[in-house]
Amino acid sequence: MTAESGLVVVDKSGGMTSHDVVSRVRRLAGTRKVGHAGTLDPMATGVLVLGVNRATRLLGHLMLTEKGYDATIRLGVSTTTDDAEGEVTATASTDGLEEAVVRAAAGEFVGDLLQVPTAVSAIKVDGKRAYQRVRDGEEVELKARPVTVHELTVRAVRGAEVDLSVRCSSGTYIRAIARDLGARLGVGGHLTALRRTAVGPYDLASARTLDQLGEAPPGLQGVLMPIADAARAAFPSRELDDTQAADVRVGRALDVGLDELTAVFAPDGEFLALYEPRGETAKAVAVFV
Fold first, then answer.
1. Which SUPFAM superfamilies does the protein's record reference (predicted)?
2. Looking at domain 235-287, which of 1.20.1630.10, 2.30.130.10, 3.30.43.20, 3.10.560.10 is its CATH number?
């Protein structure tokens, strides 16, 4: 049985790529049309939002929402990848590094920041992924990018290990925070554990492991979040009348005022499209009917 259109929130286990998860869900859903909203490294666990069939078109917009993470940083050791999977490039003693100093330094990574992404990121440099250039032995220097860390909480300092919870904008690299915190403290640092706790409104409470999905009915019936519910959860919503709904079905602009990207619905509750403000009107970004 082929799945309907909708979202499924997966709690990814460690050691798997995001593509591994997509491949498994394709088999379970009985369709090739499965994609994910934002890659998780193999080492990382936690929330991976997948779209099935028509819902794949929501994913690019969901990728722009804020994300939540729990992370552990190891101070005193720097690596080529800024995480535990890379080769050690430098070590330094953390003896005498006081917890209050660590907490104060971590607090400096809150707000609007210019962050240099890790060299093994998926960012393209002249058409080639940065991580592939690193694997090919090339020196990669990426430009700093603006990111926003809305909240950073130090949950524990256990010697050289620092446990953090972070709520941040899309495009923020937690590995880069680990690297930069270590540099700020003068001892280096890298990421040893990462768990994504939320992507926009979707969090671990609504996530299922692949084993749990494997026990679901054929086509993931009853498991997928309907596309209308997913749109209402992720975006502001606007109810339309019959005339406006007819205009949306052919992609016309709407004579309505919107403040931001908005999900618009027919009078019967059917999800029609995403519209964005354009002066005094609203323009279609993606139509789903």
1. Pseudouridine synthase (SSF55120), PUA domain-like (SSF88697)
2. 2.30.130.10
Distance CA 7, CA 56 (A): 8
- CATH assignment, 6-64+201-229: 3.30.2350.10
Q: What dihedral do alpha carbons 45, 38, 231, 1 form, nearest 10°?
A: -70
Q: Whole-model pTM above 0.85?
A: yes
At position 39, the amino acid (one-letter code) is T
Task: Kindly report the length of the chain.
Answer: 289
Going by the DSSP 8-state scheme, the letter that residue 254 receives in this structure is B
For position 214, what pLDDT does the model report?
Answer: 94
Coil, strand or helix: which one is 87? coil
What is the per-residue pLDDT across 91-114, written as a single tens digit (0 to 9) for each? 999 998 999 999 999 999 999 999
Q: What amino acid positions are annotated as catalytic residues?
A: 41
Domains 67-199 and 235-287 share a fold: no
Q: 190, 94 in Cβ contact below 8 A?
A: no
Q: What is the pLDDT of residue 70?
A: 98
